[in-house]
Amino acid sequence: MTHPSPPSLPPAKFGIVDLFAGPGGLDIAATIMKDEGVESIGVEWDEATRATRAAAGLLTTEVKDVAALGPCDPSVVEATVLTGGPPCQSFSVAGSRKGHQALDDVLRLATRLADHEDEASFDAAWKEVKSETDAMSDDRTGFVLQPLRWIMEAKLKRGRPYEVVVLEQVQTVMPVWQHFVKILRRTGYAAEAHMLHTEDFGVPQTRRRAVLVAQFDPENVERKVLFPQATHQRYRKGAERLPPVHDHRDGSLFRTSHSGGDVEPWVSMGDALSATRAREFVMVSNYGSGGDPKNRGRRESEEPAPTITGKVRRNRLYPLKRDRAGELVIKKEDELPRLSFEEAGLLQSFPAEYPWRSTDVAQQIGNAIPPRLSLHILSMALLRKPPQEKWFELLKEWRPETPAVPVAALRSAPPQTSPPPVSSSAARRPLTGAPAKSSAK
Predict the structure, then answer these.
(1) Can 72 be counted among the known catalytic residues?
(2) Does the N-terminal or the C-terminal CB of the chain have fewer CB atoms within 10 Å?
(3) Is 271 part of any domain?
(4) What is the rounded CA–CA span in Å between residue 96 and residue 19?
(5) What is the pLDDT of residues 39-73, one digit of tens each?
């Protein structure tokens, strides 16, 4: 009996292996860039997220565990680009003694993986590091070191370093990326790490991401690495929205300006949800403001959404009303239907027809990197120039090749009022496993 071959990355100018790939926020951008010679394959642990990827037609390795694979595996050996967003670490809890200790551990262990000249020396160091991380109470400390292992093994074992490396995570991971920059420069890469604001790039949501970009250039490791430049207005509470640079008569929602330093106004929730929300509205966040859990943040539909997390379905929506003093009027009985999964995806800049699967869709959406931001990052990292205008229209109009379950069916589901239960498979996750990206926004 003949068994089908496991999925593998085809040879390509820019063949991407995406670690901790999630539902496809980066891979869908790679699909849009296919004409530039971009292909991608993702490594993802979570079965529900893998189902979403399959429905979207995204290539995913048969082996689910990032730690069980490496650059020499046949399914990913053709990769020239490494990307990834390891799960948020325990050190993402700012100011805690435990968080500081976890950060110190990561930086110390990362240093032990640097400056090895041969495979045997690196293997010995990795064995010691892995033994230590496996013994830790929080196995996520080991996850953030996995991209570094892949980078070193590509150079020392495969004999072909990755030409480009892109890593991204929440803002609290920046100290790790800055430490990785120093290590990668000693490994032959020009590397930099910067904080990017998603609304700066036309995502209808405020979200900060720590991004590392490295390009193999052993003769010029100190050179500048180009990062995407803002195309849209930065959101600040109370700021006035800029007038549009373009008139959008072609019907485009996310039009981008690259000329004269002009930027477009931020893209609002109302812009992104115009097909489903005709009336102006107010979103009351699930999270408190200023340390007060009762002081819920509020955004009007003409503003970008707050950060979309796995608890996005807990945000409440109300018609936009004001009293004579100009204060917002919010009445419980006026509550509007909560965001559907389709709408939450749109606020992350996913296509309206993205085929979300399973019962933990909100978590998948909240954990993902916005595809629109991915287009900006990949274009600058791979091509060293801004993304093409047509890519944003292709992203907006994207549809899966096979018919998906109508999102309307998902929209009718009752609001999630508690985090989704942990599946039995997740409960049995090994210490070396690679789960779907965790959310710590």
Answers:
(1) no
(2) N
(3) no
(4) 28
(5) 999 999 999 999 999 999 999 999 999 999 999 99
